[in-house]
Design goal:
The chain is α+β, with helices and mostly antiparallel strands and 691 residues long. Helix content is 47%, strand content 15%. It folds into three domains: 302 residues, Thrombin, subunit H (Beta Barrel), CATH 2.40.10.120; 71 residues; 140 residues, no CATH class.
Length: 691
């Protein structure tokens, strides 16, 4: 399907005025504002902000923005390759740059001279240099497929062929080419990235500032977080990259209330085009099971952390465990927020109303009903797919069951000696330290999750337990299995043809659980092309109603999102559009100077003029995970902030964007400037930012 020029005026007016029940009206921007650069909403910008940027404006903005490695966003903010992103985007990389007696978590880092900037091996950033709409080419190469599976293969082949052809063009030479699928196959683009692989650290604050408020403050506002880091890109000759043609000028005054702002970054993933039947599946099955998994592992991690932190010799191990626990806690809040949103009648009914409207314009088409039927067939298998996959977080016992079950079924196949040796080595490695308190706990948790989430009427777990409690089954399992004895495992593996007669409890459990998992995984996998095909057809019907006026779901590709700097009502009061360093110190003293509200020594006696500087602010821009590190700019292409989070009300934005309460939380550029000037005294960096 050819994607035509943006038809905002007609399509969005349709959304605003469709005749639906008064208590269930879709909002104008339910599908969000993550606009792609090949289809920017020029007419909307004119209507909403009296702002008419030309193509040169969009090109400059696009090339000034960066993708930071494979997990965040960033931007050039000086003509000499200076890069800005988040502290939390950089945290996993900078540890390797520490020298003897250095600890960036407690000391931070600043390169006083350019020669002091430290290269991070393996780190890279990418600039979206070229874009091509290849929809017509793909459609021409994928005509008349035999079925959905054939269509998927034809599309894959077409994208590969087209990428190879573009790679031979002079303008695309030397770029990393990435085909992008939008609207479930309704549109295709080809992106050409220029890659910079010599990235050096310039400045990073202490962990206490970059992670201020920690897990308790995560996804909240008001907020006080200096979540910022500066890097620099160097060219192949070891000189700073010349970014003078495309960079955002740093505005030390930052954002002001009601100012129009644009977030330019790479949102990771959204699911705003899922149908009601899919959202019901998410609400009742998928996300509750994910949440149960996360909460159980987080509890285990925190117990392990508490046991480690009392031992000074295990400080590093304890910190790593705490970092892992925070990652899970972050996901728990995110998934919990999505579930709450799906259970919110107002938000969900807006999705229902939108689908009803689309279907009313799609007479005699049963794509939605067919997709609902497909999901009903998956329900009996959802628990097994969710809870029985091999993972270290589910323990060695379950992983060993997978290995042994697959090994048993491989015996009849002809496999090479090298492959057989590799499989046996993996099994023996898992058998080491199988019977530990942690492994017993993990198997107990897995069985408890199965019992809680098993599909109604399925007696798999009941038969497996055979009248025992889960605790008793786990005790008997580890008490009797020979797979905790490495020498006995070696003996079993030496006679693989006898495996079929092996009645060890681990083998018996594997035959029940892993066979169930394999059947469930096959059901999901085999139906995937059919379901993806229906999703594509439904997306095409959305186009038939609205044209290209709706932004595609996030795909970790570059987008521009418009909004305004604005506070909001919360908790019976009002959240101000900005916070200041006065508030940071209030949090510090109100929480008795304890982590995660503790402050390093250099922050203890700040000058009074520094305290009034803004540190964080909120805006109505549309973001999701992956946008971390995105610059937030004004109409003049000046950096006024640095995106690092969303508020708790923004979590349902995975499936619907709610402009009234959804807020992007950013570090204020004035707050960055103030900290660099008064606390870190980074004269060289300040000179570069304010030229």
């Amino acid at each position: 399907m050819k994607i035509i020029k943006f038809l905002l005026a007609s399509s969005f007016l349709l959304i605003s005025s469709i005749g639906l029940a008064q208590d269930a009206q879709p909002n104008r921007f339910d599908f969000g504002k993550m606009w792609s650069f090949e289809n920017p909403p020029k007419e909307w910008f004119k209507e909403a902000y009296n702002f008419e940027p030309g193509d040169d404006w969009f090109t400059d903005v696009r090339k000034s923005s960066l993708r930071f490695a494979e997990w965040c966003s960033a931007s050039f903010i000086s003509p000499n390759g200076l890069i800005m992103t988040n502290h939390h985007c950089s945290r996993s990389v900078v540890g390797a740059l520490q020298q003897e007696n250095e600890n960036f978590d407690t000391q931070g880092f600043y390169a006083v001279n350019q020669s002091d900037e430290r290269k991070a091996e393996g780190l890279f950033v990418e600039q979206l240099h070229m874009i091509a709409d290849i929809t017509d080419e793909v459609m021409a190469l994928t005509k008349n497929p035999d079925n959905d599976l054939h269509k998927a293969q034809m599309t894959e082949d077409a994208l590969k062929k087209i990428s190879e052809e573009y790679g031979k063009k002079e303008a695309w030479s030397g770029l990393r080419l990435e085909p992008v699928t939008y609207y479930s196959g309704g549109k295709f683009s080809l992106y050409g990235y220029k890659k910079y692989e010599d990235i050096r650290l310039v400045w990073i604050p202490e962990l206490d500032l970059g992670f201020y408020g920690g897990d308790p403050d995560n996804f909240t506002y008001p907020r006080y977080n200096l979540d910022a880091t500066f890097w620099r890109a160097y060219d192949e000759n070891g000189n700073p990259v010349d970014s003078s043609k495309n960079y955002f000028k740093f505005n030390p005054n930052g954002a002001s209330e009601n100012e129009v702002t644009f977030v330019v970054g790479n949102p990771g993933s959204t699911e705003r085009y899922r149908t009601i039947s899919q959202l019901e599946y998410d609400r009742d099955y998928r996300y509750p099971m994910i949440l149960r998994f996360l909460e159980n592992r987080h509890q285990i991690m925190m117990e392990e952390y508490k046991a480690l932190k009392s031992d000074p010799s295990k400080e590093l191990e304890a910190q790593e465990k705490l970092n892992d626990a925070f990652s899970f806690s972050n996901s728990i809040k995110a998934i919990g927020g999505i579930i709450d949103g799906l259970k919110n009648p107002e938000l969900f009914e807006r999705k229902v109303a939108m689908e009803k409207h689309i279907r009313s314009k799609s007479a005699d088409l049963d794509y939605w009903d067919n997709l609902a039927t497909a999901y009903k067939k998956l329900l009996p298998h959802s628990w097994a797919v969710m809870h029985l996959g091999a993972s270290p977080y589910r323990g060695k016992a379950l992983m060993l069951m997978h290995q042994m079950y697959n090994f048993e079924n491989m015996v009849a196949e002809e496999i090479s000696e090298d492959e057989m040796t590799k499989i046996k080595s993996g099994i023996l490695e898992l058998a080491k330290e199988l019977d530990t308190p942690k492994e017993r706990r993990l198997l107990n948790v897995v069985l408890s999750e199965l019992e809680a989430d098993i599909y109604q009427g399925d007696n798999t777990v009941t038969k497996l337990l055979a009248g025992k409690s889960i605790d008793a089954f786990v005790d008997d399992f580890f008490g009797s299995t020979v797979f905790k004895d490495e020498s006995k495992v070696e003996s079993i593996l030496s006679e693989p043809k006898n495996l079929a007669d092996n009645t060890d409890v681990l083998m018996q459990t594997a035959r029940v659980l892993i066979s169930k998992y394999n059947d469930a995984a096959l059901e999901f996998e085999s139906s995937s092309p059919y379901r993806r095909g229906l999703e594509s057809k439904i997306a095409n019907q959305v186009f038939n109603v609205y044209g290209a006026g709706l932004p595609p779901d996030a795909t970790f590709t570059l987008r521009i999102s418009d909004g305004v700097v604005k506070g909001y009502e919360y908790n019976g009061t009002e959240a101000p559009y900005k916070t200041t360093y006065y508030g940071l110190y209030n949090r510090h003293f109100s929480n008795d100077k304890e982590f995660p509200w503790a402050l390093p020594e250099r922050w203890k006696n700040p000058p009074t003029e520094f305290l009034q500087y803004p540190i964080n602010f909120v805006s109505t821009n549309d973001i999701i995970g992956g946008n971390s590190g995105s610059p937030i700019i004004n109409k003049n292409k000046e950096v006024v902030g640095l995106v690092f989070d969303g508020n708790i009300e923004s979590l349902p934005s995975n499936f619907i964007f709610d402009e009234e309460y959804n807020r992007t939380v950013s570090v204020h550029s004035g707050g960055i400037y103030g900290a660099l000037k008064y606390i870190y005294k980074t004269d060289r960096l300040l000179d570069e930012l304010t030229k």
